[in-house]
Structure formats: structure tokens, C-alpha cells
Amino acid sequence: MNTAFSPEQDELRTSVRRLFENVVPAAVLRQLWETETGRSPQVWKGLAEIGVPALLVPEEYEGLGADELDLFFVLEEAGRAALPDAILESCVLAPILLAGSTADGLKRRWLPALATGEARATVAFDGARAVPDAHLSDLVLVVDGDQVVAYERGEVTVRPVPSMDPSRRPASVTARAGSGVRVDGAPVARARAARLAGSAVLLGGVGSRLVEFAVAYAKVREQFGRPIGSFQAIKHQLATAHSRNELARHAAVGAMYDLAHRAGSSSDTAVLAHVCALEAERESNRVSLQVHGGIGFTWEHDLQIWLKHGKSLELGYGTWRETAYAAGAGTVLSGRSEGGTR
Amino acid sequence: MDLEFDTRNEQFRREVSAWLDENAPAGRLSPPATAEGLRQHLAWERRLFEAGYAAPGWPRRFGGLGLDLWGETVFDEEYVRRRLPERLNKMALIHGARTVLVHGTEEQQRNWLPGVLDCSDIWCQGFSEPDAGSDLASLRTTGRLDGDEIVLNGQKTWTSNGAIATHMYALVRTDPAAPKHHGISFLVFDLRTPGVEIRPMRQLHGHSGFAEVFFTDVRVPLTSVVGELNDGWRVAQTALRLERGSARGSHTRLVAALDALTEAAARAGADRGLRERVGSLRAWVFAYVRATYALIDTVDRGGDDGVVASVNKLGLSEIQTAIHDLWLEVLGDEAELVDELGPDGELLGLRRDYWHSRAQEIFAGSSEIQRNIIAERGLGLPREVSR
Ligand SMILES: Cc1cc2nc3c(=O)[nH]c(=O)nc-3n(C[C@H](O)[C@H](O)[C@H](O)COP(=O)(O)OP(=O)(O)OC[C@H]3O[C@@H](n4cnc5c(N)ncnc54)[C@H](O)[C@@H]3O)c2cc1C
């Protein structure tokens, strides 16, 4: 067994982190709230230069033919940066649905464009009322049960809906009657698993960043003549949140690994990873604001960007109630936990 | 990344499985604190020893199989999965004797290790004292140098297996003038030395597992010291790290507990809320299993497991207690009524496991101590003032 990421994967992480730090620091994220699309074109350009949108596109469609595990760090860094762009939808879910389908026309038309970053895509699951980045997507894949239909930009009406996170800009999508093309043979189960596992990674990025902020603050903020980080009540909350993030991250790595190498168990472990991520991020979200105290509750402090991003991810990809139920229902009925997967 | 056991380990798993299926004792053994129980346990240990399975990870020259951590893990998984008897010498196998493998001289290793493997010696851990638990370095048992001997006076407590042990590895203060964390030595010595008095104590769930151990002018040879004299705190760190860090089947035990909970929930006709809670615990068990393999991989490659071991130990304790809590709740009065008293008034099965999960939050460094370690060493937060 080898639980380490490869040097290439580490390198990708470094590039992506550098891109986000340079292009969308907190001050820029705030500026983007006021713009029409809410998105920095430089992010997408940078990602395309690094090759991120091409990772899951097969080589015959001008992609890199990598696997889901290769996207782990990309998603984690996106979470750490509170990046609002729908990377999960455009760079993971859409390529999975298209590449695994038998819809050759759609594949030829869209996969190369997605790979170069010329086109962006999003995915709407089961009548979702809040579809990420529908407002700037060239392709909208609508999943309903095990059917998928592809719509081009002109074939849908997109209406913004409010979100916990002002950066995210989700929208409702209504298709024009008689438009759209069926995506035959799309691997919907795989995309669903990738959605849960991928959003677990995003949540993990937000959660660990929230704890990092609070740790840094606890070291410098003094009350009663000493840093608040020396108070055990603070220390223990941070240690607990950190530990949950760490364990949840192992679950997320396991789920992404299964997507890449053990398709058979990936639906199940994606659910499990998602539950852990939700609980760990929720705890980190609570602890981080608590440790910051009053300053954390001001509009001016950047902590709010991450607090809200985390909350909106907590609600946007299946709530705790739905996911925990999914994790427990089947095994409780069968009386077999299969908890260790071995 | 490759999250599979390699073919060599899977081959070993098949060998171990076949052997255990063939040789494992049928039914439960009596508790080792009884004469009959001790005989049964020793017989089982002897079989393991003769098959070479007493300590698969130890070097061959001491009777092990010289396997790496993955091999050991495979063995532990198969052993724990079958709920086979708790190893009589687990304190030595997991940390005590392993510490001697790291810090001991060749002569100490040759003198002590074979006795552990065939269970002709049984070791216990004498760290805690009535006034030195979490604050272990405040221990007061003294070891006065006298020629080529050390003279022990003081008391140890909560000593697991103390009543049946023949040897103790202990921390004693050998230089009373030195600062708190200095002047401590790590010793291994024979408990049958004059001046040692062992008073068995029972544990809360009825097990006769504990003892208080008193020392009055107990003379042990200077060759008992592992590592340098007065450098015992450093040596003890190895033991403590092994104690909380080694997986030793904890992940398999957690899966078994989850299985039992799931079965109970299924029988109870779980409602939505219960399914959610079971689902959440199942998720954390999955996370813990993956975290365990990652920790093993780190240690196997010679990496530092310091804070990661604490993260895992804290996680294990929290998940394990939550599973057992819910399990009792699901069973309700069935858990109250079930007759689980063993031969000597000990609790067996479910209720024993429940209370054991509670103890897990205390021993091997309490959950509070793990949080301190994670916060200070892992996250770099300032230390508390008074230490
Ligand atoms: C089943 C079992 C088996 C054991 N086996 C052995 C053995 O074989 N050999 C051996 O040497 N010992 C053994 N012990 C003892 C064990 O190591 C100690 O119980 C443990 O280290 C805690 O010490 P204590 O009991 O003195 O509690 P204390 O240290 O008095 O702690 C009491 C409470 O205060 C908390 N606390 C203490 N210090 C702090 C702090 N700085 N910050 C916040 N909270 C704090 C603790 O977390 C705990 O909740 C065993 C214990 C159990 C339960």
C-alpha cells in the first residue's frame, strides 16, 4: 500500500495554489461580488494553462486522460481559496458524463472545447433549483434519474437564485421546449459518486482553511495578558476540529481513489466521505468564528468569505440528513455495516 | 497512490487465515487472572509461538517473522476479526519490549525478548502512580543508586495485568535533584524480587485486570536500565508513541463494533433518525480505517507519526464511544437484561466492550491530553502557563 500522492500530483497542487493566491486573493473575491458574472476570467485562463480542464478528458479528445485522484488537490485548493468557479461541474462532472457516454457527436463537439477551457459546462441534478455557474456555462447537462440531456447556452433560461455565499451565483435553469440532445449511455452513477466525493474534497479545503485562520488568530490575539491560544478551551476546540478535518480528508482521499481505481465501491465510499466532510466542515465553521470572536462577525473581516462558502457547500451537494441517511439506510436494512470496506 | 495490500501480504493473509481457522481455540477462555484461565491462555500463546506467530513483526533472531508493519497489520486484522483472546503479553508486544528493541542493548534484548515471545515472562507497564497520571513526569517512585544496583521505593497503580505479570517496565526517579523531566530512568525488572508487593484491583467492569504495585527497598541490577541512566523520559516517549500510535487491529475492532450496532439497529427496525446516526458512524469508521492505513504507511517509511498518532487515537476514542453509546440506546432494556456475566463475575461481550470504550478515553493518554498534544505540537499553539 502506498498512501502518498505522486510528485506530479504535488506539483499540480503547487501550481494551482499559486494561481489562486495570485489571481483571487480575498480582496479580489470581494471585488468580484460587484461584477456582472462574479468570475475572474484569469482564473479560468490560468487553470486552462495548467491543464486542469483537460485532466479528465480522454486523449483522443485532446485531453490528458488523467483520473479523479489527479483532481484531488485541484478541488482541495479551490476549497481553500473559497473559489466560487464551478470547477467540480465543469472539470469533473461534465467530462465524466460526456466521456463515458456513447454520444459521439456531443463528445466531438464539447470535449475538446472543455479541455482547452474555451467552453465551460455545468450539471443540474434532479430538478435542482440552484445550478452552479449556469449563468456563464456554454453547456448545461441536466441529469434526471439515469437520463442526461445536453443543452447549449441559447436553449436554456437562467434565473439567478440567492445563495448563502454571495460568490457562488447559482441559478435555476429552464430548458426551451423541444430543445436539447440526449446524452446516450452517460455514466450517471459515476457522476453522482464524483459529485459527492468531489464536494467532500471542496468542503475539506474550506474546513482546513477555516481552522488555519483560527489557529493563526489564536496565536496573536491576547486577552487576560496572554494569547487566547494558550487557553485550553480554545486549544481543544481547534484540536477537535483539526482532527475531524484530518480523518475526513482520509475518507475523501479514499473516495477519490475508488472513483479512479475501484468503481465498484465508489458510490458507497463517496457517500461516506461526504458525511465526514459535512460534519468536519460544520465543526470547523463553528469553531473558527467562535475563536475569532467579534471581529469575525464583521463584514470587513475576510473570514466571512470562507464561513459562507462552507455553509453554501454544506447545503449545495446533499445535506447531512440526506447523506447520512444514504450512508446508513442500506446497511441497516441488511444488518451488515461493511464499514471497513475490507 | 495504491491503496491495496500487495500480493505478498495477501498471500500472508491467506496463510494466517488458514492457520487461525485451524488452530484457534473454540469458545471463550477463562480470564487470565484465574489459574485455569492462565493455563488456557498460556497454552494458546504457546501455539502461536510455535507457529512463529507470537510477534510477526519482530526480528527473526528473537523468534519473530521479521515482517514489516503491513505484515503485522494483516496478522492483527485476521486475529481481531475472529475475536480471538486478548494477547497475554500485549503490553510488551505493543510497546514495552518494542521499546527495548529500539533503545536496549544487544544483551538486554537477548536476555528479555525471548521470554516475552514464549510467555515464560509476562510484562506489565509501571508508569502511572496515584499522583502521576496525565502528569506522568511528576512520578515519585525513587531509584537510589547503590553500587551496581538500584534500590526502588514507591508505588505504581492501575497496572494492567499486574496480578499475573512477572516483569515490569517502569519509570522511576533516579536523580531527585534534576528538573522534572530529567532524572527519570526506564527500567525492566523481575517482579519476583524481594520487596515487591502486588495488590490486585478489579476494573469497573469486573475484570481483575489491574494491580497496585508497591516497592520497599527493592534491589534491581543497574543493567535493568534501558537507554542511559536519567534519560528515561526520552525512552518513555518511544513507548508512549507506540502505545497510542500502533493500530494493532483497532480499526478491525471498530468495524466489528459497527457491525454489531448495525445488526442491532436492523433488528430494532431502525427509523429514519437512527439510520442517519448509524450512517454517520459508518462514515467515520471508514475514515478511521483509511487514516490507520495512512499512519501505518508513514511509519513504515520511517516518517514521523507524532501528532498523527494523537489525531488517530482521539478519533478512535470518539468514534468508538459513540458507536457503543448508540448501541446501548438501540438495545434499550435488552442491554440491561442480557446475561453476560462470565465465570468470575466479569462482564462479557457488549457491556464489557461498552465500558472498555469509556476507558479508551482515559488510558494511553486521555482525550484531553491528546488534544493538548495536537494543539501544541501539531498546530503550534502556545503552551499552558504552568508547565
Ligand atoms: C483500563 C486502563 C488501563 C490502564 N493501564 C495502565 C497500565 O498498565 N500502566 C500504567 O502505568 N497506567 C495504566 N493506566 C493508567 C492511565 O495511564 C491513567 O489513568 C491516565 O494516564 C490518566 O491518569 P489519571 O487516571 O491519573 O487521571 P488524571 O491525570 O488525574 O486526569 C483526570 C482527568 O483530568 C484530565 N486532565 C488531566 N490533566 C489535564 C490537563 N493538563 N488538561 C486538561 N485535562 C486534564 C484528564 O484528561 C482526566 O479527564 C490505565 C488506565 C485505564 C483506565
TrEMBL record, chain A:
- Protein name, as recorded: Acyl-CoA dehydrogenase
The cofactors it requires, by name, are:
FAD
Q: Which residues form the Acyl-CoA dehydrogenase/oxidase N-terminal domain?
A: 6-118
Q: Which domain of life is it from?
A: Bacteria
One of the Pfam families matching this protein, by short name? Acyl-CoA_dh_N
Is Flavoprotein given among the entry's keywords? yes
Q: Which organism is it from?
A: Amycolatopsis endophytica
The family annotation for this protein states: Belongs to the acyl-CoA dehydrogenase family.
The Acyl-CoA dehydrogenase/oxidase C-terminal domain covers 200-319
Could you state a single Gene Ontology molecular function term?
acyl-CoA dehydrogenase activity
**Which keywords describe this protein according to UniProt?**
FAD, Flavoprotein, Oxidoreductase
UniProtKB/TrEMBL annotation, chain B:
Checking PANTHER family in the record gives: ACYL-COA DEHYDROGENASE, ACYL-COA DEHYDROGENASE FADE29
| Highest taxon listed in the record's lineage | Bacteria
Provide the protein name.
Alkylation response protein AidB-like acyl-CoA dehydrogenase
The Gene Ontology terms for molecular function here are: flavin adenine dinucleotide binding; oxidoreductase activity, acting on the CH-CH group of donors
Species of origin: Amycolatopsis endophytica
Record-annotated Acyl-CoA dehydrogenase/oxidase N-terminal domain positions: 10-117
UniProtKB keywords: FAD, Flavoprotein, Oxidoreductase
Q: Where is the Acyl-CoA dehydrogenase/oxidase C-terminal domain?
A: 230-378
Any idea where the Acyl-CoA oxidase/dehydrogenase middle domain is? 124-218
Family per record: Belongs to the acyl-CoA dehydrogenase family.
Name any GO cellular component annotation: plasma membrane
**Needed co-factor(s):** FAD
User: Looking at the Swiss-Prot or TrEMBL record, what is one Pfam family this protein matches?
Assistant: Acyl-CoA_dh_1
